[in-house]
Design goal:
alpha+beta; 23% helix
């Protein structure tokens, strides 16, 4: 993708999981300059704790 002068480039990670109640998406988006690399490991750690619990067919 071409980048215009003065534009901010961003990177994004989106992970998803399907449950009985639907599709769940968890994402991380940040400017490439400094912030993405700084916090991508923190996002990966937080993602490890993501769980879907369902009771009576409804997501909690």
């Amino acid at each position: 993708m071409p980048v215009n002068r003065g534009a901010v480039r961003v990177r994004e990670i989106i992970d998803g999981a399907a449950g009985k109640a639907g599709l769940y998406l968890v994402g991380y988006r940040a400017p490439v300059l400094y912030y993405f690399d700084r916090d991508v490991d923190k996002f990966a750690e937080a993602l490890k704790s993501f769980t879907i619990t369902e009771s009576n067919g409804k997501a909690n």
